[in-house]
Amino acid sequence: xxxxxxxLLPMVVLAMLSxxxxxxxxxxxxxxxxxxxxxxxxxxxxxxxxxMLLLSRDGDTLFVGxxxxxxxxDVSQKEAIGIRSKLxxxxxxxxxxxxxxxxxxxxDCPNFIRVLxxxxxxxxxxxxxxxxxxxxxxxxxxxxxxxxxxxxPEEGRGRCPYDxxxxxTAITVDGExxxxxxxxxRGNRPVISRHLSPVDLKLDDTxxxxxxxxxxxxxxxxxxxxxxxxxxxVGREYDFIDKFIxxxxxxxxxxxxxxxxxxxxxxxxxxxAQLLCQASSxxxxxxxxxxxxxxxxxxxxxxxxxxxxxxTSQWSVNSGQSAVCAFRLGDIKAAFSxxxxxxxxxxxxxxxxxxxxxxxxxxxxxxxxxxxxxRFVKDNFLADDSVQPVGRSLTMVSHDQKYSHLVAQRVRAAxxxxxxxxFLLTDSGYLHKAVLLEKGAHIIEEVQVFxxxxxxxxxxxxxxxxxxxxxxxxxxxxxxxxxxxxxxxCAQCVLARDPFCGWAPxxxxxxxxxxxPASLGQDVDAGNVEEVCSTAPLSPRARFGPNSLTTGETxxxxxxxxxxxxxxxxSRHAQRLWERPDSRISPDLCxxxxxxxxxxxATPATLGQYLCLSTELGHRQVLAVYNVEQxxxxxxxxxxxxxxxxxxxxHAHPAPTPTPTAWTTAPPGGPGxxxxxxxxxxxxxxxxxxxxxxxxxxxxPRPPTGAGGVAPSGWPRDVGSKDGGRLPLALRPSYLRxxxxxxxxxxxxxxxxxxxxxxxxxxxxxxxxxxxxxxxxAEREALRGEPPAGADGQRANGRGARGGxxxxxxxxxxxxxxxxxxx
Length: 823
Ligand SMILES: *[C@@H]1O[C@H](CO)[C@@H](O)[C@H](O)[C@H]1NC(C)=O
Ligand SMILES: *[C@@H]1O[C@H](CO)[C@@H](O)[C@H](O)[C@H]1NC(C)=O
Ligand SMILES: *[C@@H]1O[C@H](CO)[C@@H](O)[C@H](O)[C@H]1NC(C)=O
Ligand SMILES: *[C@@H]1O[C@H](CO)[C@@H](O)[C@H](O)[C@H]1NC(C)=O
Known about the structure:
five-stranded mixed beta sheet; 12 helices; 40 strands; Immunoglobulin-like; Methylamine Dehydrogenase, Chain H
């Protein structure tokens, strides 16, 4: 990662940028508290760690597993979340003491609910970690009263983890509980089991079925009568590389009752296969983080059920990145119906088949098969083929976000076509809403749902209510799937490309698409404003937003004053540029800021009108209009309410003498420009901006970093506009000083920017293709199984996880055989 850095020219940066420009950025960002995207939050004193969510069928009640409590919340109202009932369920003082004596942190000893399931119409079932000694209980759904057969809660071993941070999964089918968790205190004994059933089953105790797994989720597919478990584990079939993690899907049949002699009370239908989330020639995204099912569209076969998963990579070169892959049920079934690898139970090594195929592993109904058949099943449960993602490609990749959880929904858009929407939660607490289009994913918006990184989170989507619930230790948040009214014009509505939202010309509003057919303006695929918004008979204002205003905002400035104009921008996908209707903007006199703002020194030549234009998907709109005038010596007009405060401040600092910094300029004052006080200022100001095509209460992008941060804040403000101190203001150091400062600063900024951009771009670009020797060398070598010199990293990487035979790998096997070859 050295050498090349020095002679690179801006050209190269540009080339690299264009090469990597497919990074996904949410179009609009709503930080917590944005008026454009109000969220309803449930948070009560005494209720904490609300991290396990379960939604009632009608969507009116949200059951929450918390710390030492189970709650049922009334979520039928849009404006508030109320509490219906609460079950307090904490370990006794003695249990807590024992927990702490065992060396556990006191903060981890409470009873964290980890299993919360409906059993039947009247009862629920819950399990908690209960001071590292898991317990379970029946509860009445209506009242949350404990309804244990015996009065004491049941032992929860094998149903619930001991450690609250250990991941596990549970699902009930016909009142029977299927779980995948660890069944011991140390977390070394993973088990997939069935409880509350006439014949409880579990995975055979012998070694080799699971290899240090992390359980993620489970799905019941009724048409198959199978439950699928998703997890990651050590891929022992790749024994040429140490601890290579693979993602898996495993299956069991709900009809399984275990063998008669062999595999008595054990699964006879357990089989597993590898899930591959990898783009050709890149390192695989090998660690599944979350996976959910999306039922097929109406009328489509069950095989079209899709499983959307978030995957990250075990290698540090890909840290901070994640990918989404989709797997088809039909492809999973196909992998399970083909060949299986053979486990040598003496050496615990895998090989491809040499034995005659005696049975079809994974097939339902093996329970009264012969001992011979079941012995075969015991050694043949890993499918030889991996499951490839739909389209053999990644659904989406984020190079700067680590997603942790997702939910998916199919939405019928105004054109009566279905679009898949993914809600993806980032590690940093933002919920991204992405629509999957043929050209790739488009992230419509992001909404901040919590502030601190959360170890444990859960999400529930209520399609009927149009809400996503996010449960974290900061409480439960209700996020509406869409908030169309933030788009105030047809252009804004269409540019959002949100299948949930369409422009209703007769109401001149952006509204939610309803099942009742209505002619709404929408273009999810292309966002073509001219086409959609020109057909309806609209006033130009409704069509393109309130930006046909030409009067603009008047700024009174003094000559030689540094003027900063800000261009408000809701969309991060728009390009912004400045224009002057009456003359051109001279690059010698004006400086375009990285954040879209414009900076210049007021001279007779630079006075006049300025327009900030944005172009998005070929649609051009005016975002702001400023009239820069020379200030009359008269005192500030009294019109502005805010003026007083700033005037007072200005008086507090008498006229500035030439400053030691030489560079002085206005404090941040206008929309769209963040300096030291960033977002807060913008939030207030935006609504005033004349001609701004920003919806009222509009979303604000998170403050850009770095840009404009050079201005010392707290300088006296000069009040020049009728709106008060928010406008560019005047200081009066000498013109020459300013000019020298500007030039120096420009040079500095440019070189810094270049360096940063180069660094970032090169790093990311390289990450996408090949790992770097610096941090990934050892891993790559191991993956590749050959000396690094002159090796072709990409080829080797690809092979690493593809399940293919590692021809050039140096096997570590003691017996000298290649892995995956017949022993
Ligand atoms: C419970 O919440 C606290 C913050 O309120 C957090 O630090 C802790 O990690 C959470 N514990 C679990 C097990 O979720
Ligand atoms: C639901 O399950 C509970 C616990 O097994 C049982 O006591 C109850 O009778 C069941 N209710 C119905 C309606 O089946
Ligand atoms: C398999 O077992 C079921 C009961 O579990 C029995 O009814 C059936 O006859 C058995 N089939 C064979 C082929 O043994
Ligand atoms: C202006 O500020 C002064 C003192 O800062 C205050 O006494 C006065 O009431 C203010 N006037 C208005 C109109 O806010």
